[in-house]
Design goal:
With about 130 residues, this protein is of the alpha+beta class. Helices cover about 55% and strands about 25% of the residues. The chain has 2 helices and 5 strands, in the order H-E-E-H-E-E-E. The protein has a 5-stranded mixed sheet, with helices on one face. A hairpin with a 2-residue loop joins strand 3 and strand 4. Helix 1 runs antiparallel to helix 2. The longest helix has about 50 residues. Keywords: Membrane, Transmembrane, Transmembrane helix. InterPro entries: Class3_signal_pept_motif (IPR007166). Pfam families: Class_IIIsignal (PF04021).
């Protein structure tokens, strides 16, 4: 009489391997998407905090977050303001956004960039 205990069929091993490969591919893609989502969320939060700081410090200017786009690490943020923002105000918004991104990723801001999956940079556009 033949003892079959402890043997696994080749089909089971092959199927398990394929499932593992699919799971790793999905996890890899999801992980990258989560970082980008986290960065975009942090950028929006940083923009809103910075514009609120500027609007409520006695300038009398109405400043609102309008739009955000992302492509290959470059984040373009458009803000609306009642009057044009100065270069210092735009630099303040940019710095607050980079700090928020760095904090969300646990990375430092270096040379106006944050390194993660991409090298994240920020461009602020003012629309009046």
């Amino acid at each position: 009489m033949k003892d079959n205990r402890g043997q696994i069929s080749a089909e089971f091993v092959l199927l398990t391997g394929i499932i593992l490969i699919i799971a790793l591919v999905i996890a890899s893609h999801t992980g990258n998407s989560l970082e980008v989502d986290k960065v975009i969320s942090a950028a929006k939060t940083g923009t809103i905090e910075a514009t609120n700081d500027l609007a409520y410090n006695g300038t009398g200017n109405v400043i609102r977050f309008q739009n955000i786009t992302f492509q290959d690490g470059k984040i373009n943020i458009t803000v609306y303001s009642k009057r044009s923002l100065t270069a210092n105000e735009i630099a303040y918004i940019k710095q607050k956004v980079l700090e928020a991104i760095g904090e969300s990723l646990g990375k430092p801001v270096t040379d106006n960039t944050v390194k993660g999956r991409y090298t994240y940079t920020v461009e602020v556009v003012n629309v009046t």
